[in-house]
Amino acid sequence: MKKAIVFKNVRKNFKQLKAVDGISMSIEQGEFFGLLGPNGAGKSTLINMMAGLV
């Protein structure tokens, strides 16, 4: 299948706060995925990055 989204060593900081630090992943077209983690782990930030909002 063709890759729809590819992240390699992605980082996102908000001032001094590391929201996303070194994430690498790929998602194939038509693939379902989930993000699991505690509060403040960067799940929403990662989704916003995928959507081009951050």
Average pLDDT, rounded to a whole number, is: 93
Number of domains: 1
Terminal Cα span: 27 Å
Spatial extent as radius of gyration? 12 Å
Counting DSSP E segments of at least 2 residues, the number of strands comes to 2
Number of helices: 1
What characterizes the major β-sheet? 2 strands, antiparallel
- As residue ranges, the low-confidence spans are none
The amount of beta strand, in percent, is 35-45%
Walk across the major sheet and give the strand order.
1-2
Helix proportion: 10-25%
Class derived from helix and strand content: mainly beta
> SSE order in H/E notation?
EEH
Taken from the alpha-carbon principal axes, the silhouette is globular
